[in-house]
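In the current project phase, the collection of sequences with tokenised folds has grown. One resulting record follows, to show the layout:
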Amino acid sequence: MRVYIAEKPSLGRAIAQGLGGGKAEDGCIRTKSGIVTWCFGHILEQYDPQDYDSRYARWQIADLPIVPNPWKNKVRKDAKKQFTIIKKLVETADEIVNCGDPDREGQLLIDEVLEELHVLGKKPIYRLLLSALDEKSVHAALHDLRP
């Protein structure tokens, strides 16, 4: 099964339409060609300093700079449900398509989720490069997936 992870719901709906439409479910759309799901911007955020060590809850000049090793992310509170949906879909996927916007930030939004789920390098991942949401552009991009 192929899972398409869009950067935002509107992009996910456009991709699902480009795949021939499908059945909307909670946090995803099932199509004949795979399942489309989405983030809504950054669904992960960096740990706060006190998440690394409680002594950083109150900053002191002697503690600066705070440079954790490794840097860690956590799921935003308002995104836990969608992250869980993405996680379940990715676990069962044979292939994953990064459908972030065609810029560095769009790449990062999906890559950080895939990194958090420990799938980078473990499953085939393709990139959808889409610059417009009209039907012709979506079809063309879906037929030009890149590793």
User: Anything to note?
Assistant: The beta strands are 2-6, 22-25, 28-31, 34-38, 44-46, 73-75, 95-99, 125-127. Residues 80-92 form the longest helix (13 residues). The radius of gyration is 17 Å. The chain has a mean pLDDT of 94.
